[in-house]
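WARN  no MSA supplied for this record, continuing single-sequence
INFO  ligand: pyridoxal-5'-phosphate
INFO  echoing inputs
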Amino acid sequence: MALDILKIRKDFPILDQKVYGKPLIYFDSAASAQKVLSVLKKEEQLVLEYYGNIHRGAHYMADKATAEFEAVRDSVKNFINARFREEIIFTKGATEGMNLVAFSFGESFINEGDEIILTEMEHHANIVPWQMMAMRRKAVIKVIPFSDDGRLEVEKLDSLITSKTKIIAVAHISNTLGMVNPVKEIIAKAHSHGIKVLVDGAQSVKHFKIDVQDMDADFYSFSSHKMYGPNGVGVLYGKRELLDKMVPYQGGGEMISVVKFEKTTYNSLPYKFEAGTPDITGVIAFGEAVRYLNEMDTDAMISYENSLTCYCMDELKKIKGVIIYGTWKDHSSVISFNIKGIHHYDLAMILDKGGVALRSGRLCADPVMDHYGVSGMLRVSFDVYNTFAEVDSFIVLLKKAIKMLGGAKINE
Ligand SMILES: Cc1ncc(COP(=O)(O)O)c(C=O)c1O
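INFO  complex generated
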């Protein structure tokens, strides 16, 4: 069934506006997608009608909020096809999920000299927590490289894995190169050596129909704000038998069973990993984002986003001096590029004044910038609410900006 993009855009009223007097072209959904109207309405309804703290109240509003909060856990469980609701831990975002695993898995399973494998294309959120853990536990970090076309060199994994390897942490989709990494292959190989795998799902959770059981990931971390939901909310999926064996990440209310000065016992899953009052409003409103995505024809959405990406990529390639990073065939809806002789920041500033919201800079991925020896890149990312007409306008504006800045000549 074809998607009605204009109807979809009505669910995101923020898109229908002008910035600096120009129609907004929002090409920055990989950083944060816009929020669907039903999410905002739910937040308002909760706060105006029945807000209360969850799991601890003895009154109508607390009970209603608790029931809705826990119902979202069930929706998320079904959305990613987890086996048990206890495997869904609410966090404040993908970053916190990765920190949680690095800390709790590290403290429970990683000892001096043990090894962790990351990839060269990770977001900082899937590098720095592991470095912090490696310093504490005196562990060693190894890295799977990527080739210049952006392909992860998975064939090198065999030579990186040793009897000391405990976990591999890998992005399902790179936020800079847009590459879709072969996580199933990596997980199967890791498991054949008894190694666990954390998948950073920040960019993939909305780009694919995720089935964590089929993927067989041990952990999968993602953020609500990249799925039309509120920011400040995320989910860490973890296999129950692993989470059970891991020490808690933070201490406080909710995560305990009995507290005595002599000894405290911890709550059962998932609460063991949810210390303190969570973002109640955010989680409940996130349920509406999940509902929206459930009602969407996922295949049609993915295929539409892919066709927008291919179209933009083809148009960009016609511009003389363009350098596209990540040209390997397994691509998602992110394109990072530079124009020879022009600073990415100057282009971004001019495009912004033309109404185009895109990302420029180091994209939270310093190792990728170092790989190509650049100070930064421009990145456009597409979502189902973008249109081909917006791509056309963007290309026109980009060509004008290049002319203004006197960079490479354009092939007309
Ligand atoms: C691949 C990837 N991992 C992790 C993150 C961090 O997500 P958050 O800032 O929502 O915690 C991002 C955000 O852009 C990302 O793209």
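The chain has 14 helices and 17 strands.
INFO  checksum written, moving to next record
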